[in-house]
Structure formats: structure tokens, C-alpha cells
Amino acid sequence: MQELVLPQPGPMAQREWEREATGAAERQEFEALLSEAAPLAFRVARGVLRNSADAEDVAQEALLRAYRRFDRLRDRQRFRGWLVRIAFRLAIDRVRSAKRREHRETLWSQSEPRISTEDTVATSEFQSHLERALAEISEKYRLVLLLSAMEGHTLEEIAGLLGVPVGTVKSRLFFARKHLAEKLRCHVTLTNTR
Amino acid sequence: MPCDAYKHALSEAATGAPASIALRSHLESCADCRAALAEEQALYSSIDAGLGIVANAEVPPSLIPSVRARLNEHPAAARRWFGPVLAPLAAALILGILVVRALRPPVKSPFSPTMTVSTARPPSQPPPSFATPPSPRAAISEVPSASRPSTHPLHQRLDSLAETAPEVLVPRDQEILLASYAQQWQTHKYVRVTAELIPAPSLEPREVAPIQIAPLDVKALEEADSR
Predict the structure, then answer these.
(1) What number of other Cβ atoms are within 10 A of residue A182's Cβ?
(2) From CA B117, how far away is CA B196, in angstroms rounded?
(3) First vs last Cα of chain A: how many Å apart?
(4) Which of A7, A112, A153, B70 could join A157 in a cystine, given CB atoms 3.0 to 4.6 angstroms apart?
(5) Do A178 and B11 touch (CB under 8 A)?
(6) How far apart are CA B195 and CA B84, in angstroms?
(7) Contact A34/A59 with Cβ under 8 angstroms?
């Protein structure tokens, strides 16, 4: 009778299998978060860039970056806040690099970001003033404003997303809205008097 | 135009903050302030509505499929070798640097106590005593004033260095040379080292007395003894 001997996997193969299993589990976990978090990343980017196509690019980049560093995120409950910060930072960087590019290209100057036809139709005159005013206020105020207007986030949720106290969120929101109101007051009056 | 006294309170109330009793009672009687509050509230409503449009833009349906496709292009396993490989490499590198630095002999300071400026000994001074090395400042200042006339330029330098230079342990006969060395170092940042060599000792062959070997007296053994 012949004895059948099964080759035992070596330690390298064992480690490789473990690594693959961990990767697959992480991928599964990330996929579960993806459908919920992708709109958030897109909307944060859209709020900064005022352009849907650019915002989609930035959201994709933010999600990929989040996936590459997903194993470093110990507390998975903080994924949304983490992603918001990545998307916001990437969007701000894109705005800045676009400004630099515009500055370099002196053939024609485009003071406004690229706005697609659908965006143009969707935005009224006040809306365009509002978006311009929003682009001028500081980053920390802008992000709080966007998050407060997005998906009905409460103050506590925004505080959790940004990792700051609720009182900070409240004061930032107050000053940001006041700042916007001061910038837009004249446009409201003009619109009303027309 | 709203009343000046209530301008700030109106602005606060328009943001959604609760109005005070004084403001509420004032609003009942002042039509201008009521109009101003309504206008301000309309402004904030417009802002909130506009922010709602900005912040809740429709998500393109292609977003999630595109992300999934890009995730497949960049599998996470591809990046995982960095951590396990780079972390031990970095640790080994740091450890190696620390070991090399620990094993390297210490660089001698120009004012090191073991430094020898000159091996020549002035004939007038006694041989150096290392048994109880005096404190350098003390050594400099303890030199008897009789043997160190203050008019000598090197002694004057020595006195000034005793105040400013770091403490150095040297035998007494090398103080002056060290002072000169330190002065040059401080002024020029380089040193002209003048080495005085010890005259080579003259080696003369020693005379050895010839070896005296007494002649041996060998006698033949008797027959009985040899057996």
C-alpha cells in the first residue's frame, strides 16, 4: 500500500495566506462603508470646488487614499470624519493648484471655476453669489457650514466628524453664517429692489 | 431703519438665537424693527437654502463603480510589503548608527587633560607631579608669583585665560605652552604646533665580560661500577 504524504505549507506561504485573508476582510469592510461614505466625500468636494466633474475626481481620489491607509485606521467608527477631512483637503489643494495654474497661464484668465451647463442652469444669481462668498471664507468655517447643510447633520455629528467640541462647532457655525450674511446682504437688497 | 439699540439683538435673533423679552416687547411696538428682523431672517433662510443646494448636490451614479474599478487596479495587498520590510530596516539602521557612535573613540578636545603640548621640561622647574593633579584654574592661579613674574607676556595671557578658558588638567611645566596654544586657537582658530623633540638618547654598546668555562675533568669508571 502506498502512503500519501501531503506537503505542508511553509511559513512564507502561511504568512501570504494570512495576508491575503486580512486584505480580503479589509476590502469587504471598506466596500460596506463605501456606498455610505462616497456621497459624503463627493458633496464635501463639490462644496469646495463648485463643479461636479472635479468633485467626482476628488471624491474618487479621497476614497482610494482612504482605502490604501485603511489598515492604519484603528477606530472604524471614525471613518466618515477621516474621509471628510481627506476629501476636504484634496479639494482645497485642487483649488489652490488651479489658482496657481491660472496665474501661470496668462493667455486667458478664468476667475471662476469651471461650471458645467447643468450647474449653470441649477444656480440662480443669489446662488452664484453665495458660492463665491463661501469660497472666500476660511476653511474651518466653510467645512462646518457645508457639513451642517449636508444630509441634516446635527451639531454633535459634525463635532464627531471633525473631532472638535460641540461648542467649537456652534461658534464656528455662528460666525460663518454671520460672515456670509454680511457678504450677501447687499445682493439680497439688490434682488429685492429689482 | 431698525432702532440702533436693537440692531445687534435683531441680528442675533435672525440667526436663530432666542429673542430676549425686551426685544420681543420692542418688536410689538416697532414696525421698522419687525421689518428689519423679517428681512434678516429672509437673508439667513436664503443662505441656508443655498447652502443646502451646494452641500447636497446629486451624487453622480458613476462614482461608486469607478471607485470599485480603481480599487481592483490597486489591490491593497500590493502595498503591504512596505510595512513589514521597511520598519525592521529602519530600526536596524538606527541601531547601527547608535552602535557606531557608541564604539567610536571620543574626539579629544584641544583642551583635553591628556593632551601633551610639549615634552620638553623647562630646566628651572621641578618635574610634574601627577599624583595629585591640581584643579586647572587652581593650577594656573596656584603658581607662585615669585616663579612667575607678572611682566612676562605669557604669564599675563595665562592670567587672562584663567578667567575665561575652560579648565584643563596639565602638569605645571606645560601651563605656558598650553596658554599660548589656547590663545592662538581663540584668535586664529588654527594652531601652529611647535613640537620640541626630546634629544634621542645616545646608545652605546655595553661591554660584556667573556664567559669563563672551567675545563671538565672526565675520569674512566672502574669495571665493577660500569657493570
Answers:
(1) 12
(2) 9
(3) 102
(4) A153
(5) yes
(6) 57
(7) no
Q: How far apart are CA A19 and CA A68, in angstroms?
A: 15
Cβ contact (<8 Å) for A31 and B64?
no
By the CB < 8 Å criterion, does A33 face chain B? no
Q: Are A145 and A170 in contact (CB under 8 A)?
A: no
Residues of chain B in contact with residue A27, where contact means CB-CB under 8 angstroms, are 71, 76
Q: Could you say which of B39, B52, B70 has the minimum Cβ distance to residue A60?
A: B70
Distance CA B179, CA B36 (A): 87
Q: Does A71 touch chain B (CB under 8 A)?
A: yes
- Chain B residues whose beta carbon lies within 8 Å of the beta carbon of residue A177: 15, 44, 47
User: ∠A111-A130-A125 over CA atoms, to 5°?
Assistant: 80
A13 touches chain B (CB under 8 A): no
> What tens digit of pLDDT does each residue of B70-108 get?
888 766 544 555 556 677 888 899 999 998 888 877 655
pTM for this one? 0.54
Sign of CA dihedral B89, B92, B96, B98: positive
* ipTM score: 0.72
Write out pLDDT tens, residues A31-80: 888 888 899 999 999 988 888 899 999 999 999 999 888 888 777 778 88
